[in-house]
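name: query_chain
kind: protein
chains: 1
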Amino acid sequence: MEGQCPAGKQKLPTGDLFHAAVSGDPEWLCLCLERVQSPNQQLNKQGLTVLHVAAQHGQLNSLKLLLESCTVDVNARCPHGRTPLHMALSPESKPNSHCCLTYLLKHGAEPNVSTDEGLTPLHMAAAEGLRECVEALLRVGADTHARDSRGHTPLELACLWGHRVVARILKNAMWHTDKKRDMEKRQELQNLKQNMIRMHRKAEGMQKLAREAMNKQKVSEWAERKGLPCLKSPTTGLWTLSHRCCHSAKPVKKHHASESREIWNISLNPSRPPPANINRSKTVRIGVHPEKAVDEPDLQQCVTLHCFGNRHIQYTTSWDDVPQPVPDLPLDVIQKGLFPSKFPSRIAGPLQFQCSSVLDVPHRGSNQGTKASPWTEVAMHLAEDFQNLPGHY
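structure:
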């Protein structure tokens, strides 16, 4: 009978390939594979391949045999856009969802592929509350900000179905992803600033050469009108004379090390309080040593920012009038990065703030004494969402 494993396996039809994959019997599956030329072309009524069916029912032995013994596509898509990785996260695959998922990922399954409804494997793992599967997907780079056709992220699905632990893991991953992207954008802004400084200095050098050439031309014209011989350097002798005359023989007074120590109060006596100075800038200093002045030109006169209604920011420079885009950052961050003298920071120091994980933040736990139904929490989440929508429910 089709769908069972009788004693005479040699006479089984090829249509039993899917039943053999569901059963997980390696001998039966090997026998069926010998009679099938291309397993990828064998589809059931739902348009699923044998690899889809094995992953849907959590048959790890069938997955190993299919991926090791024949050439099957680990990223094959069904008519609805589902891959074997999606099927491994279905409710029928429990409790072997995690082992099937890790095996498929190890053999080249794409973690960010989405179905026709926009569901990624991380969406399905979050909706099912599969913590180990969520952690495995995050380790291989699953997109935590992906949205389905309804605009839901994996975090929102985990909150909707009341999976608190999974929600906290996803929230922590999203926070780290946002911070990483923010640091990358800030680094792009710093690279842009350094490029602007190089172009600014290059433009200043060209302007200086132009001024010197113009001065040389004017001096030559003046000497020609006066009938004087052409001078190699118009101000060499004059500058040498004025330099020697204007500077007296009195040596220049140099600041002693003790004076700088007294200014910044680098004292070995801890009982001596530092002297107050109200003339200093109102900034918070972490150390007592003087801060080194940054050798950077002021870009306010040569760089102009242009803001548009869609929060798109561009810039133009004095040496290039063509608008250029800037990194996707808030306007105040861009202004502080490009014009630090105009927007000084109140906290300046060599130390950086250390971020902590959201998983370490104390949170309220549920009452362990009472066992509430998960549907109760689902209803509470729905009520909270409906309150934020216009209208009455």
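note: Residues 181 and 361 are 22 Å apart (CA to CA).
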